[in-house]
Every structure is written in C-alpha cells, then in structure tokens.
Amino acid sequence: MTTATRDTSPETVYQDYLRSLAEADEHAAVEVARGLLDAGVAADRVLLELVAPAQAEVGELWARNEWSVAQEHAATHISDRVVAAVAAYAEVRPNRARIVVACMDGEWHALPARLVAEVLRLRGWQVTFLGASVPAAHLMSYLHRYDAYAVALASALPMRLPHAHRMIEACRRSDVPVLVGGRGFGMDGRWARRLGVPWAANAVAAADLLSDERALRAPAPAELTHLADDEYAGLVNRRGELIESALAELTQRYPAIGDYTPAQLDSTISDLGHILDFLAAALYVDDGSLFTEFIEWLVTILDSRGVPGATVEASLEHYSRLLHDFPRAVDHLQRGRAVLPARAVGSGRPAPRAG
Ligand code: B12
C-alpha cells in the first residue's frame, strides 16, 4: 500500500497558495501559511516569500486583464487575512522603540506597508500601523502625541512623488526621522535619492536601516534644483485645462469616443489625467525614465483591454503642442512617444474600450 505524501516543495506550496487566491478560498490560503509556520518556516519568510510575491503576481494577472478587479480585490482581502493569521501565530513582545508605518495621503496600497509593519513587529519594534491614505496633518499630530522614534512612509505610485516629498518634509519639521519604501520610489529607490530620503527595498532592509540611527538621521541632500524652472508648478496649474482640450481633440480625431458610455469616458479622462500626473512627477524628480516606464505600462494595460495605443500617441502629441514653452516637459513627452510600439502610432479608430 502506498501513502500519498504532500509535496512541500516551495514551488508547489506557492502554486497551492496562488490557487487558493484564484478560488477566493480564504481557509485554504490560511492553511498553506500555517502549514509553513508549523514546519518551522520563519514568519517573516512566509510574509515576504509567499504573500508578497503572490500579491505581485495578482497585479500582473490584473494588468493582463486575465483577472477582473473583483478577483484582485478578493485576493487582496485574503492576503490581508493571511497576514493577520501569521502575525497572530508569531506573537512577539515589543522591546524596541515605536515606529509609525503609514501610507501617503491618496495612497490606497495598504498591504505592502502592512507587510513591512508586521516584519518590523516580528523584530521587536513597537509598531503602529496607520493604514492607507493618511492625511499629512493627522500624521503629524499622531507623531507628536506618541513620540515616534521614526516613521516609515509607503507609496506604490510614482505619480505621488511630489506629494510624498511634502509629507517627508512635514515629518522632518516635526524632527521625526523618515524612511520610505514601495515601488513608487523606483524599484532601485532612485527617486527617493532625488528627494534626499533614506529608502529601503523591502521590510528586511527597513529593519536594518532603523537599527542604523546615523544613516536614518543624516540623509543625503535632495537634488531638486531643476524645480527653479517652475515647469512642475506650471503643469499642475494647467492640469484641468489640458485634460479638457486633449479630450476635445481626441473626440474630434476619433468620433467613436463620442459614443462612449459614461464609464468609458471616465476611464479616458482618468488616463489623460494619469499621463499628466506621471509627467508632473517626472518633472519633479527630473527623470524621463519615470514617464517612459509609465507610457510602456499604460500601452500594455490599454492593449489588453482593447484600446489601441494610437490614442496615447495622439494625447502625447497634443500635450507637446500645448506645452511648447516647457522644454523639459516636451522632452519627456517626445521620449514617451519614442517608446510607443509601432502599432500604437498611427490614426486607427479606437475600438470601444472595456470600461
Ligand atoms: C492590490 C493592489 C491594489 C489595491 C490595494 C489594496 C490594498 N489593501 O493594498 C487597490 C485596488 C486599492 C489598488 C488600486 C490601484 N492600483 Co494597484 N495594485 C495592487 C497590486 C495587485 C498588489 C499590491 C501589493 O500588495 N503588492 C505586493 C507588495 C508586497 O509588493 P511591493 O509593492 O513590491 O512591496 C515590496 C517592496 O516594494 C517594499 N515596500 C512596499 N511598501 C513599502 C513601504 C516601506 C516603508 C518600505 C520600507 C518598503 C516597502 O517591501 C515590499 C515587500 O518586499 C499591485 C501589483 C504589484 N505588482 O504589486 C497593483 C499596482 C501597484 N496598482 C497599480 C495601479 C495602476 C493602481 C490604480 C491606479 C488602478 C486604478 N486605475 O485605479 C489604483 C491606485 C489607487 C491609489 N491611489 O493608491 C499598478 C501601478 C503601476 C504604475 N505604473 O504605477 C500596479 C503595479 C498593478 C500593475 N501591474 O499594473 N491596487
């Protein structure tokens, strides 16, 4: 008689976990994580080597339009429950100072920050996790009241960098050291360096940085002298007017847009706004790669939802024309056009967009 033995190789465990997310099976997902903990795998490894990569993969499935927004939401909720289960399993008494972990105002990606918070807690820090989108004024009064040793700020979206900078400066005025993390600062942290703020690639690096008070308290200066040209501020002031005129131009060039449903129109306006917000962020940190990476991402997303990139080409061209007296912005826009795939350039009719 043979007994079926459970395959516990990391790849099989990962696939089991991903399947439980796909099937929205919370119980199975928690079981997979508990199985690892029971087998002696450290709690921070379960968080960073199972939950984190699975969430990133959920993002890729959503980006390719293989998963709906609802499937992504269900998976994210389950990941959150798994993080709670892992934290409860490995209860650690705090023996170090208080760290406040918070998402920037307008930032709804709370799970990455929560993973960081839990790993710091596992290392003995007394962590207060404030969650998604914390308004700057509330964060400041919290820091004063609870005498935080440091604050860890999270951002997943590069377009929020100018805002992030204001929040970082406000924390510093309160004399609380700041460290930042999340893909919004660039996968290698290069935009955090521009803002002159210590950055950690992941939760483990954040824990190391927090133990190095000198690095935390003596960050390199910000490199933002280019802001003297006022292009960033000028673009932000003209945002509404630019979106309006780009929409009018697109509708004239592609009359099919006139038949869009309100939801499709909302998505188009939101895309036009995102283009400007990423352009503004690129101007803020003076790095064209921020904008070109976004354009490559946008075209892939639109393509998987049946919207031809020709509309992106037309929008970039339109913005270049209106912003002709902003040389840095025009340069970023031209570079953005240069990374468009050949099929995205031309005058094809936009197909009805997915939503
Ligand atoms: C879940 C999710 C959401 C959920 C978030 C819910 C929640 N409770 O977190 C919701 C639905 C709200 C959401 C909304 C949006 N999302 Co979203 N989302 C994701 C998704 C699928 C997973 C995020 C996650 O948990 N990742 C797992 C973590 C662990 O990975 P990580 O970010 O790399 O984190 C590691 C490090 O970066 C670091 N780290 C992260 N944070 C911090 C913080 C500190 C202090 C430190 C030290 C380190 C650190 O440590 C982590 C562990 O090692 C990602 C896909 C992805 N690849 O991440 C997209 C993703 C981030 N979202 C994306 C987008 C575009 C959006 C929206 C704009 C979509 C829209 N059109 O509305 C909105 C923006 C909302 C907003 N204003 O914040 C894009 C961003 C692309 C880009 N070019 O910027 C991504 C990459 C999806 C994709 N593949 O296109 N999203």
From TrEMBL:
CDD domains: B12-binding_like. SUPFAM superfamilies: Cobalamin (vitamin B12)-binding domain (SSF52242). It holds the Pfam family B12-binding. Signal peptide: none annotated. Keywords: Cobalt, Metal-binding. It comes from the Bacteria. Residues 96-220 form the B12-binding domain. InterPro entries: Cbl-bd_cap, Cobalamin-bd, Cobalamin-bd_sf, Met_Synthase/Corrinoid, Meth_synthase_dom. This is Cobalamin-binding protein. It comes from Micromonospora lutea. The lineage of its organism: Bacteria, Bacillati, Actinomycetota, Actinomycetes, Micromonosporales.
